[in-house]
Amino acid sequence: MRRFLQHLLYKPISKLSDRYSSRPDKKRVNKALSALYKSITTNGKKGPIIPFDIHNDKFIILSDQHKGARDGSDIFTKAAKNYLSALDYYNKEGFIYINLGDSEELWENLFVTIKRHNKATFEKEKLFIEQHRFIKIFGNHDLYWDNDPLAAVSLLQIYGKAIKVYEGIILQSTVNDKPLEIFMTHGHQGDLQSDGNWFSKWFVSNLWGPLEGYLRINPNTPAYNNQLKTDHNRIMYEWSSERKNMLLITGHTHQPVFKSMTQLEILYSNLDQAKKNNETIEAAALEKKITKLHMQGNTQPDFNGYLDTYFNSGCCCFNDGDITGIEITDGCIRLIKWSSHNTESIRQVLEESKLEDLKL
Predict the structure, then answer these.
(1) How many independent structural domains does the chain possess?
(2) Among candidates 162, 167, 214, 156, which has minimal Cα distance to 189?
(3) Could you give the CA distance from residue 131 to residue 116 in angstroms, rounded to a whole number?
(4) Deepest of 34, 289, 292, 351, by most Cβ within 10 A of its Cβ?
(5) Residue 67 and residue 87: Cα distance in Å, rounded?
């Protein structure tokens, strides 16, 4: 039946999605991000402002788990082990955990299904809540937390208490005697499918998403289309680069970005430097990594960030089970990866920079 419906409905759904899709539009995204930032800074309605000490406070930002039913369509299944290991580490080390949205795949699953199959992850997250070190942001695939009247009851069921779920958060500190703001949100703002009025939100959460999930149709959305991901990240970078003394951290695209550059762009930049320094062994190793990413479908980079204002946490549902995230600790910001080696989950720092060295 599914195959028959796929054949019957794929073209009309794709056409509708193309017309009303999450294809990024700069004007729309800029307006939505600016409105969210203003709402947080003016009255805190959409999220909190948290002062922090860059040398003593610790934050881990993870996004896009897309926890599902542990069936064939659950893209979190392979990454669950690394996610649980990461939470053990960050809880032990005293990090504040900022969950940046799309934690639960509520387009394709009912809440009761996710609750039944993800008890271990909710118990690990609950440990942060008990120590007041957990902040939950909603994304487009878990809009349920923002617009469903039963959301508070559901949170009580999985966490033992009804916590607030926000649209964004701002961390504030001082670096080099200048104010620093780190503005975080899922990154779907301005997406007509996911960031419209109450009716469009209800339609996506309750009808459109489940239909796409059942038919396993993924039309042009940032998480599945490399070109759209690049366009989306460029718009996010351009918005952040026009703000003074601010970093923007999002998720949504499943594409890690560090200092306004994707992993592929960083590799090309490092390769260029290695060639200039006649470091033939290093250059060969970088070319091997670049080739591997191209084989995975990544396209040639077509933009570079000139300021270090934009970061993307990547996701916790890569096909190989790896997860990526952003750490802010020890006066530094880091892009990290957790991956499985034999039976052990290993943390790896992919990129690192001191906050005081960022070009803002």
Answers:
(1) 2
(2) 167
(3) 24
(4) 351
(5) 15
